[in-house]
Amino acid sequence: MSMSFDQYMKDMVQPMRDELTRLGIQELRTPEEVEASLPDAKGTALVVINSVCGCAAGQCRPGVSQALQHDITPDHLYTVFAGQDKEATAKAREYFAPYPPSSPSIALMKDGELVHFIERHQVEDRSAEEIAADLTNAFDRYCR
């Protein structure tokens, strides 16, 4: 019995998607969903660029989870999955200039404008607790 590569990847990636959607984070899987959500999001929006890499599993997703336990959180929670939903990820990255594409990464937007960004190198060299602290500081500053 053989399984297609696409089906294999969907099966392997689903738990990584679920780790964020269980937190109430909405997946944006198409460029149209990104366009309908990011530029017109009133208030604050967190956008997690998810990834299959180890630093996404060990630091990024746990850090986001911890940060969302904070008293102050963004109004909107979104995620795109790099390498899986490629067109949606590319569309989302258009809003993160001047930062180059990196995954995992985390963006905080306010009224459609980028106000805080955590790049991959800031994920892979820090613990989940440090990432959560970075995010909660940004939430305190921008989400009030």
Structural write-up:
The chain has 144 residues and is α/β, with parallel strands linked by helices. It has a single domain (1-143), classed as Glutaredoxin, CATH 3.40.30.10. The protein is built from 6 helices and 5 strands. Helix 2 packs parallel to helix 4 and helix 3 (54-67) packs across helix 6.
Write the SSE topology.
Blueprint: H1 5-21, E1 26-27, H2 31-37, E2 44-50, H3 54-67, E3 76-81, H4 86-93, E4 105-110, E5 113-118, H5 120-124, H6 128-142
Parallel strand pairs: 1-3, 2-3
Antiparallel strand pairs: 2-4, 4-5
Radius of gyration: 15 Å
Q: What is the top-level CATH class?
A: Alpha Beta
Number of helices: 6
Tell me the series of helices and strands, N- to C-terminal. HEHEHEHEEHH
N-to-C CA distance: 55 Å
Summarize the amount of helix as a percent range: 40-55%
Largest sheet geometry:
5 strands, mixed
Q: Which class of secondary structure composition applies to the elements?
A: alpha/beta
User: What is the residue-mean pLDDT, rounded to a whole number?
Assistant: 96
Proportion of beta-strand residues: 15-25%
Family: Belongs to the bacilliredoxin family.
Protein name: BrxA/BrxB family bacilliredoxin
Organism: Paenibacillus illinoisensis
InterPro entries: BrxB/BrxA
Quick overview:
About 45% of the residues lie in helices and about 20% in strands. The longest helix is centred in the N-terminal third of the chain and has 17 residues, at about 5-20.
